[in-house]
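Regression test case RT-17, inverse folding.

Input:
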């Protein structure tokens, strides 16, 4: 079951390394996802966390704006209620995991910094940091 400390929290992950490729408009593009954890009462009644698309999109775009991003395109969104996880308990208190994903154009200065970091930390044949989990 989810820890109580993570309820209502938003977790974000961003892909910045596209191997030098650009987005559809020939602009630098980042791909990001925001995932939220919440609870529902009796499977459908929102109890803890704004798990609707408006809450997810608000959190995602707030983070993109804070990073200086622009030209956002929502790519996908999912929501899964785990009512089947530990029945009948999860029929009463249902954990919910929702995700929304987007592409956006990063700030030019931030993009240059990110790409310099990626180039510096990429080792031929070793990928990025998969072999150094402490650096994630």
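Golden output:
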């Amino acid at each position: 079951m989810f820890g109580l400390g993570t309820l209502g929290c938003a977790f974000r992950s961003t892909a910045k390394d596209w191997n030098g490729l650009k987005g559809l408009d020939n602009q630098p593009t980042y791909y990001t996802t925001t995932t939220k954890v919440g609870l529902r009462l009796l499977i459908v009644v929102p109890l803890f966390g704004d798990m609707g698309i408006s809450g997810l999109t608000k959190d995602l775009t707030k983070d993109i704006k804070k990073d200086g991003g622009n030209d956002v395109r929502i790519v996908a969104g999912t929501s899964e209620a785990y009512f089947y996880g530990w029945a009948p308990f999860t029929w009463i208190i249902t954990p919910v995991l929702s995700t929304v994903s987007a592409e956006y154009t990063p700030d030019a200065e931030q993009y240059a910094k990110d790409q310099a970091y990626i180039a510096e930390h990429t080792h031929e044949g070793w990928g990025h940091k998969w072999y150094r989990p402490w650096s994630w």
